[in-house]
Amino acid sequence: MQDKGTFISPFLRPRCLAAAAPAGKAKLTHPGKxxxxxxxxxxxxxxxxxxTEYVKTQLQLDEKANPPKYRGITDCVKQTVQGHGIKGLYxxxxxxxxxxxxxxxxxxxxxxxxxxxxxxxxxxxDSTKGLLCGLGAGVMEAVFVVCPMETVKxxxxxxxxxxxxxxxxxxxxxxEIVREQGFxxxxxxxxxxxxxxxxxxxxxxxxxxxxxxxxxxxxPNKAMNPLLTGAFGAIAGAASVFGNTxxxxxxxxxxxxxxxxxxxxxxxxxxxxxxxxxxxxxxxxVPRLCRVCLDVAIVFIIYEEVVxxxxxxxxxx
Length: 317
Prior knowledge:
With 317 residues, the chain is mainly α. The chain is built from ten helices and no strands.
């Protein structure tokens, strides 16, 4: 008999077999839990970060041809507070809040629904599949929630820059938009919104999935500290900002009160490039970067923690 000096314990399993054992399989998140947890996370997040969204939108609407009203982020905040008080930084919050809850609910619900069907035997989601699931989630949230929500929000914020604002509140604003432009008026910039949200979530979930897989290694059930989840979320958010800010600028212009100047998404992009140059596609990048990093970090932290609580009171296995 060969290798007499070698003793192999019958109680130790090879690492590859241990990883494939049923006990090591990651728990799947029920889409119902994802919808509830996503909605809660979205509502809390937008109340914290809205002022940065307001400033970002104002700077993007502040076209050079007007000429520009603001000299930068600080000047925008200063003029807004001087003219409307602190509450001016929250103008349009209601429209975004009403949409943020279902937006996050749809995003996480669709993502978990799709990812549960493409995970491997151990419950691990491949990064590329995470990108595709994120893309699907982004497109769905764009069509059903984001486009009408963002159109109303941008019109609200743009309306405040006029001498005589005509929108008195969320429901009054929606009623006026529908009365003047029809239901189609709440779906301006749909193509740009689908492109933006689809690429947004594809990038974010790809980065988030990659980082989580790197951290967890061969143990898909390895616990993650909320601060680490937030750090990974911030990195994913930053990646999405640098990846699709031009689409965000085009979307904002297509949904503003002067959207009639553009024949299509492509026409909008061409006119911005011709009249303002390449730099215009990155207007509002700094405030958007601050908001998105904080936004994604908060959402992922709250989402993961709410799911943990739901797992203790809502048994779906």
